Amino acid sequence: MAERPGPATPAPPHELPDRVRLPLLTLITQQSLDEDYLHAAERRAAGAPRPPSGRPPRTAAVVVAVFGLLAATAFVQTTRNADVDDASRESLIGRIEAQRDRRAAQQERVAALREGNLALEDDVSGLVDVGQEVAVTERRLAVRTGFSAVTGEGVRVVVTEAPDADENNEVHDSDLDLLVNGLWQAGAEAIAVNGQRLTAVTAIRTSGAAIRVNGVGIQAPYTVEAIGDTRTLSARLFDTTTGLKFVSTSQVYGFDYTVEDNVEELSLPSAPDSALVLRSAESGSAGTTKEKEEPLS
Q1: Which of 30, 64, 112, 146 is positioned for an S-S bond with 271, CB 3.0–4.6 A?
Q2: 1 by DSSP, 3-state: which?
């Protein structure tokens, strides 16, 4: 009878290498020796001859020399770089200080310019005020001298002759002079006779049978218009010496006049161009003087 085979004996398990089984820290500790030293130890254990003692190999000397050269080069380079860094730092500090000084100078210049602008603004403001005052004075003088047309309230005096007036009873230039001078003294600002604006140099003169104003002949009735304060102009006219003399003359020679003392709006033209002449005197030769006339533009 054949025997039944028994259970097979299991093969021993294959052992894992140490690097798998051992912990990492233990493995590092056990294998801390360099493999070169391990090989050297194995050669000595096997009876391999030791390398001859004496001078170190030439390769080691070359390595040491190269290492020394590299170390010296690194030192020199580090020293040079340090010098360069110090120089760059000093240069940067100098540039920063120069920029700081330039900025301070620019700020001082800006402050000075600001003060100058403020002073100029004050000067301009003063000039504007002066210009306005001059403009007002110019307009006032233009009105009083007749160089510009003017509109305003005032009085109107109309002087008429009798229908049968003869040479002795007609109105003369001197009579109109009395009336005009009385109006000036009463406070009139502008006067016109029959539409002819009076200026500081206007003459009322008789030429032949007619009275001429600004070189233009006028005829009766004579309308004298004066711009001024209607509350006082008419009353003051007859309080002046020339105004009273005009009234007396009219009574003696028999011409008539009417006064409209509350005219709301009168429009007086400017004087003719022929009257807009500036007269001045200048020194001539041999101590003499000569008169020069220049038309006003």
Answers
A1: 146
A2: coil
Euclidean distance between CA atoms 76 and 50, whole angstroms: 41
List the beta bridge partners of residue 266.
152
Please answer whether residues 289 and 282 qualify as being in contact, where contact means their C-beta atoms are separated by less than 8 angstroms.
yes
Token pair 């003063």 is found at 126
How far is it, in rounded angstroms, from Cα 256 to Cα 287? 52
In this prediction, the residues of the chain whose per-residue pLDDT falls under 70 are: 1-41, 47-57, 80-84, 275-297
Q: Name, in order, each residue with C-beta under 8 angstroms of 180's C-beta and a sequence gap of 6 or more.
A: 191, 193, 198, 204, 224
Structure confidence at residue 27 (pLDDT): 59
CA distance linking residue 71 with residue 164, whole number of Å: 143
Q: CA–CA separation, 23 vs 39, rounded Å?
A: 24
Provide the pLDDT for residue 9: 54
In the chain, count of helices (H) and strands (E)? 7, 10
For residue 196, the number of C-alpha atoms closer than 13 Å in the C-beta half-sphere is 21
What is the pTM (predicted TM-score) of this model?
0.53
**Run of H or E residues at 87:** helix 58-145
pLDDT digits (tens, 9 = 90+) for 110-137: 999 998 998 898 888 888 888 888 888 8
Nearest to 159 by CA among 249, 98, 93: 249
**Token pair 């493999």 in the structure block, residue:** 35
User: How far apart are the C-alpha atoms of 193 and 267, rounded to whole Å?
Assistant: 12
pLDDT tens digits for range 198-221? 987 888 998 877 899 988 899 989
161, 220, 267, 247: CA torsion to nearest 10: -30
Element (H, E) at 233: helix 233-237
Beta carbons within 10 angstroms of residue 192's beta carbon: 25
Return the SS3 of 100.
helix
